[in-house]
Amino acid sequence: MTADAKQRAKFAIAIHGGAGAITRGNLNAEREYRDTLASALRAGLDSLCGGATSVDAITQAIVVMEDSPLFNAGHGAVLNHEGNVELDAALMEGRERGAGAIAQATRTKNPILLARAVMESPTHVMLAGPGADDFAQASNLTTMPNSYFHTERRRRQLAQAIARGNSPLDHDRENSPLDHDRYGTVGAVAVDSHGNLAAGTSTGGITNKHYGRVGDSPIIGAGTYADNRSCAVSTTGQGEHFIRCVIAHVVAQRMLLLGEGVTRAAEHAINDELTTLGGRGGLIAIDVAGVIAMPFNTAGMYRGRADHTGRIEVDIFE
Ligand code: ASP
After folding, report:
1. CA dihedral for 91, 117, 35, 167, sign (positive or negative)
2. How far is ligand 1, taken at its centre, from the CA of residue 80, in Å?
3. Exposure pattern of 61-83 as b/e (b: 16+ CB <10 Å)?
């Protein structure tokens, strides 16, 4: 194998399931998280091993997490003030910087697949509201009644947030005693055997949000970004701060313009940009060589990584 081919064979994937004030102690819940994160990584890794693109790999990994009630995406996403689910997602590939994003979808079973359909359409980059769900139907994606996304635990969480008059982040301990019920936004980044990067993020946003509120996840450059010249990034945390920092783009630009490595650029974005504005959360980032950074300024972040060696690692706490 030539050095170049060897380099190209070094595919890797990283995922997150939300960052926050995650408490230790509930071993059953912890195991469930770890198992689901590992399943998502395996789905992504299997497709990379089979020669699939980074877009395929992250889509597969995110679908596993959207279908799980554990995470704040797809089935089991958080409820807005009115008790409805409104879903945001984005997907971006790094070769041509193609991007697709959707906001406020209420019927599309797998928002990441809709983001992909938008990315692959010749005309659109972002669709919102009923137009996004109608586009899903026209693209032959599965749609469901809004009740499909609801779970009892999310109803309890909303009732509590309304009683307290707050809009907690999904995994926010300060605002909730239901620590073990805090499950987060999901995301994935990958580099494939051709050296192409991709990033994707999917979320229900924050509990008790105002209807129509859109967070960072579907905003290209804020919650999701990919550029083969630098890195692929997916974020989780207080979306408003991430939008104001344009944080995913900051990581990429620091690499491109300052020549920083992905680890340093990602740490700068969290420790300086986000923390300085008072924001909380984390991100995952990967470069074309498969180097992965996963900084966060919260007590934990559900996260995992896997690569061409077959190694799969899952972590929750620092
Ligand atoms: N970033 C998401 C949002 O603000 C929330 C999260 O990461 O859990 O919509």
Report:
1. positive
2. 13
3. bbbbbbbbbbbbbbbbbbbbeee
Provide the 3-class DSSP secondary structure of residue 282.
Answer: strand
Homologous superfamily, domain 3-315: (Glycosyl)asparaginase (3.60.20.30)
Is 53 labeled as catalytic in the residue annotation?
A: no
Contact 81, 102 (CB under 8 A): no
CA–centroid distance, residue 169 to ligand 1 (Å): 7
pTM above threshold 0.85: yes
Which residues line the pocket of ligand 1, CB cutoff 6 A? 18, 72, 169-170, 184-185, 203, 205-206, 215-217, 236-237, 239
What distance in Å separates the CA atoms of residue 97 and residue 193, rounded to the nearest whole number? 18
| The one catalytic residue among 36, 151, 185, 236 | 185
- Residue pLDDT tens, the chain, 318 long: 445 544 556 899 999 999 987 777 778 888 999 999 999 999 999 999 999 999 999 999 999 999 999 999 999 999 999 999 999 999 999 999 999 999 999 999 999 999 999 999 999 999 999 999 999 999 999 999 999 999 999 999 999 999 988 776 665 554 444 344 354 899 999 999 999 999 999 999 999 999 999 999 999 999 999 999 999 999 999 999 999 999 999 999 999 999 999 999 999 999 999 999 999 999 999 999 999 999 999 989 999 999 999 999 999 988
The answer to whether 307 and 12 are in contact (CB under 8 A) is yes
